[in-house]
Every structure is written in structure tokens, then in C-alpha cells.
């Protein structure tokens, strides 16, 4: 949660959905390893399906974030409309 800045009410449902889809597997921390006064931690590991699907999803997102060439960003000027001169009707 520290790394993502997401609250537990947001993060854990996402992890649960990813585990249900087969993207992750989880296991609880051994009972002897956890400190007193806190619940046992759950450790998540990406599955092969999670790696391959996640890599594909990330590639799609990165492609959408790539800057477009200038020719694709700017529209050509509109052709003058008959009867309009400097923004006024003639």
C-alpha cells in the first residue's frame, strides 16, 4: 500500500480479482514469522498467465501514452466558408 498510495479498500479487492482470474497466487505468512499485534501478511506472486497478460496490457497502455506525431496531433485549417469574411457574414 505504501508503494501504490492506494488504501486497503482499493488495493485488496484488485488483488482478489487478479487472483480469481489466475493472474496471482497468494499465501499467508507463516504463523511464527508475524509479529505480535498484527495479522499475518499475505504474499502475492504473479503467475505465468499474469506475467504474459500483464505484459500485453502494459504494452497497450504504453502505446496509448506515446506522443503522436505532429501531423496526427494538429488538424488542418478549415477551408473558408462561402459568405464568411474575417468571421463575419458578407
Describe the structure concisely for a colleague:
This protein is α+β, with helices and mostly antiparallel strands and 90 residues long. It is 39% helix and 16% strand. Strands 1-2 form a two-stranded antiparallel sheet. Strands 3-4 form a two-stranded antiparallel ribbon.
Provide an overview of this structure.
- The chain has one domain (1-65): Arc Repressor Mutant, subunit A (Orthogonal Bundle), CATH 1.10.10.
- It contains three helices and four strands; from the N terminus they run αββααββ.
- The chain has helices at 8-20, 48-65, 70-73, and strands at residues 24-28, 42-46, 84-85, 88-89.
- By secondary structure, it is an alpha+beta fold.
- The model has no long low-confidence stretch (mean pLDDT 81).
- Strand 3 (84-85) and strand 4 (88-89) form a beta hairpin.
- The strands form two sheets. Strands 1-2 form a two-stranded antiparallel sheet.
Residue stretches low in confidence (pLDDT < 50, at least 5 long) are none
Q: Structural class per helix/strand content?
A: alpha+beta
- Rg estimate, integer Å: 26 Å
CATH-defined architecture: Orthogonal Bundle
CATH fold label: Arc Repressor Mutant, subunit A
Distance between the termini: 64 Å
Percent helix range: 25-40%
- Lateral arrangement of strands in the main beta sheet: 1-2
Largest sheet: 2 strands, antiparallel
